[in-house]
């Protein structure tokens, strides 16, 4: 490890601790490395241009963000919410069950945890607190925890990041997330049922049969979206990036033309928000391209792989180490930054140990997703807190049982690869 790399890591840790944006810390520390190592700092710009030019799949990110915003503003999420109430509202703690189920349905269209938490999550928290008798902390905790389904169930923006840095098939990763997404939904609903029984939370008075039929009919068009997306990807009609464009177009047509819920002003606001979010994500990518290049030049990934091989560590032990490392990093770093920085370091080792990269992608994605709801960084905690004006401490008081459930599901997914690989193997994406 060179002196320039040591100073780069010191600068990275220091600026991150001071609260600078992740993209700026990665890029700035990378520039410092070039200066101290006697290289031309302008080479960082060349790396960024080459990285972006080769990353067609990256276009999927702003398109999925745009689609999620249109669904939130265009009446689509309201129809999905009513469908979930009709499906699971009759259970004790009905609105909490609806919260989890809505996250699963919404994740099949947006792939974003924050879009779920800030959009339909806000509506559900208000319903739970004002009409259901739930505490604000519990309602926010369920919303935060269930939003983590978004990055697991396809389509997933975080899995797009993983595919970008590992050259893994996006289609295989999306299919690998189906069973884990359903598994974590079932696990959280079991936890909700246990808490609801202990606290005697109410059920929901369901509408008459004719009303339920009307709800089902109103939800047909929104529910066609995941079928169109996944069907198009796996039939070969379009790529995952093109699927994101189809999702945006479909959401726009439904919201603006069919439901007439959006005007030009709302569409413009959605475009502005998409540009803002995309700019933040792109800054992280800029820094990650530079950072990954430096680590490769310093042979850090190769040295890590050689260390684990020399230590004769099994795949089981290595996966345990990865889980512990990523869970800790998730408390302090952004999910996309962890994927972009850490995964390239670990890839040579997983190949050497014979770990399937699709299975590893699910494990890594699940780890960083848990980090979205763990303090002190937990992005979703702050999103839910800020949007609903609920203190973070109130959310933390209620969210630990759900974090425990998520970690238990992570353990199952880590050591039973069948849950991740069954569907990709059945459809021929993985041998």
* Poorly predicted runs of 5 or more residues: none
**Terminal Cα separation, in Å?**
38 Å
Radius of gyration: 22 Å
Count of the domains: 1
Average per-residue pLDDT, rounded, comes to 82
The percentage helix is over 70%
Q: How many H/I helices? A: 23
- The helix-and-strand class reads mainly alpha
Compressed to H and E, one letter per element, the order equals HHHHHHHHHHHHHHHHHHHHHHH
Number of strands: 0
* Beta-strand fraction estimate: under 5%
Could you describe the largest sheet, including whether it forms a barrel? none
Shape category: globular
Describe this structure in words.
There is one protein chain. The protein is mostly helical and 431 residues long. It has one domain. Helices cover 78% and strands 0% of the residues. It contains 23 helices and no strands. Helix 3 (43-53) packs across helix 16 (264-297), helix 4 packs parallel to helix 15 (240-258) and helix 18 runs parallel beside helix 20. The model has no long low-confidence stretch (mean pLDDT 82).
């Amino acid at each position: 490890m060179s002196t320039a790399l040591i100073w780069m890591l010191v600068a990275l840790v220091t600026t991150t601790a001071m609260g600078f944006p992740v993209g700026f810390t990665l890029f700035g520390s990378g520039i410092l490395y070039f200066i101290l190592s006697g290289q031309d700092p302008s080479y960082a710009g060349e790396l960024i241009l080459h990285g972006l030019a080769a990353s067609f799949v990256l276009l999927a990110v702003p398109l999925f963000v745009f689609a999620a915003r249109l669904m939130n503003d265009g009446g689509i999420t309201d129809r999905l919410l009513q469908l979930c109430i009709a499906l699971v509202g009759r259970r004790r703690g009905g609105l909490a069950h609806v919260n989890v189920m809505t996250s699963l349905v919404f994740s099949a269209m947006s792939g974003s945890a924050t879009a779920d938490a800030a959009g339909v999550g806000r509506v559900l928290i208000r319903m739970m607190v004002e009409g259901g008798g739930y505490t604000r902390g519990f309602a926010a905790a369920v919303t935060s925890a269930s939003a983590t389904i978004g990055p697991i169930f396809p389509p997933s923006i975080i899995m797009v990041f993983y595919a970008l840095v590992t050259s893994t098939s996006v289609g295989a990763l999306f299919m690998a997330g189906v069973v884990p997404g359903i598994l974590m939904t079932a696990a959280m609903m079991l936890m909700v049922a246990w808490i609801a029984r202990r606290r005697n939370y109410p059920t929901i008075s369901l509408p008459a049969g004719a009303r339920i039929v009307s709800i089902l009919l109103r939800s047909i068009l929104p529910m066609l979206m995941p079928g169109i997306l996944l069907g198009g990807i796996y039939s070969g009609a379009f790529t995952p990036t093109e699927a994101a464009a189809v999702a945006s177009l479909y959401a726009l047509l439904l919201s603006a033309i069919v439901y007439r819920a959006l005007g030009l002003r709302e569409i413009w606001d959605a475009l502005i928000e998409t540009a803002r979010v995309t700019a933040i994500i792109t800054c992280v990518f800029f820094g990650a391209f530079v950072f990954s290049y430096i680590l490769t030049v310093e042979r850090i990934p190769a040295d890590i792989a050689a260390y684990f091989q020399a230590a004769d560590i099994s795949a089981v032990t290595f996966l345990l180490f990865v889980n512990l490392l990523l869970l800790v990093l998730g408390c302090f770093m952004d999910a996309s930054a962890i994927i972009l920085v850490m995964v390239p370091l670990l890839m040579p080792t997983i190949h050497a140990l014979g770990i399937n990269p699709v299975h590893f992608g699910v494990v890594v994605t699940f780890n960083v997703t848990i980090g979205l709801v763990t303090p002190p960084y937990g992005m979703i905690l702050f999103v839910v807190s800020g949007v609903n004006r609920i203190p973070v401490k109130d959310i933390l008081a209620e969210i630990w049982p759900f974090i425990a459930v998520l970690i238990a599901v992570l353990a199952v997914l880590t050591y039973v690869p069948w849950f991740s690989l069954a569907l990709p193997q059945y459809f021929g994406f993985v041998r």
